[in-house]
Amino acid sequence: MNKRVVVLGAGYGGLVAALKLAKETSAGSVDITLVNKYDYHQLVTQLYEPAAAAKRDTEVRIPLKKLLAGKPIRFVEDVVTKIDPKEKVVTLEGGELSYDYLVVALGSETEYFGIPGMKEYGMTLKSVDEARLIRTHIERCFAEYPLDPRPELLTFVVGGAGLTGIELVGEIADWLPRLCEESNIPREQVTLYNVEAMPSILPGFEPDLVAKAEEVLKAKGVIFKVGSPIVQVEPGVVHLKDGEVIQSRTIIWTGGVRGNQIVVEAGFETEPRGRAKVNEYLQAVGYDDVYMAGDCCFVLNEQGRPYPPTAQLAIQMGNSVAHNLAADLQGRPKTPFVPKILGTVASLGGRDAVGKVGNNYKASGRVAYFIKDLSQIRYLAKIGALMK
């Protein structure tokens, strides 16, 4: 009887794991089932573009039917509600799946850090649907303003100045002049804030790259509030720790992530922010038949600190999980997972960016943007989506 492998989540880690496992196992030797709540794969790292009308929604979602065509992978469009690793059963909204091996790649949830009102009144950017909501909300604010000229309608706050927050605020800054022209509103009547609790934007980036990013974004009209975290959100009001109050109808929160609650409730060993602990082969602690990939688990670097939850790490995890799972099925030795961080590039809107590739090469402007674009093309080629 074929071994049953169930992969939960068709994000970067889960999709890569399923596709690679199908390649590394012989036809008819394993039954692979991929479960995802949407019938498409989302390019989550690009969501800031449709959120600010720089791309269409269809450009950041790829139908799974096309990606899986001709592959020995069964796709189930459903929502995971429970994992029982002792009984080897996954409960979905529409039924149950039993497995011999499980790959959990359910991604992360938003971390609100206990900020009162943030979950209730802030928007997040973790899906194509949320990107569409942000875009239409901003457009509605501009549509309402000529009829009801309240400053809070044209005051926009992005909370968090990590990679997602900076890329989003950069794209919104580029979009604002067009919105102003269409609505016949002077640009100086629009205010765009980026609020960060840490002393600097882009934590983890080197100081010269941070300075360049600040220079570019400030020239586009972005107002930075660093070192003064958001402490409360009310309808139309954002409170900062330094006592400043920002009147705004728009708060977009990009300030942090935590592990998927389903992983916590399943009883897997997790760290304080709910991400699953794994061994060197990316197996859940205590469960040799359960592999983890992507943001729902964490791996420590040589300094004993968790690697940041990025797409490149999730993709590498997906590759490693598939390789080791195939080794299990075929009775071969497994290979420890050793991340290779290739660098990080942050888009600043338009065709501008800053970043570092490898250990030493720094880039900014169009060169950095080209590097970021190239990495996206490489990924699309990897999953067979370039010609789809």
TrEMBL record:
InterPro entries: FAD/NAD-bd_sf, FAD/NAD-binding_dom, NADH-Q_oxidoreductase. Its cofactor is FAD. GO terms for biological process: aerobic electron transport chain. Pfam families: Pyr_redox_2. Keywords: FAD, Flavoprotein, Oxidoreductase. It comes from the Bacteria. One of its GO terms (molecular function) is NAD(P)H dehydrogenase (quinone) activity. Residues 4-318 form the FAD/NAD(P)-binding domain. Belongs to the NADH dehydrogenase family. This is FAD-dependent pyridine nucleotide-disulfide oxidoreductase. It comes from Kyrpidia tusciae (strain DSM 2912 / NBRC 15312 / T2).
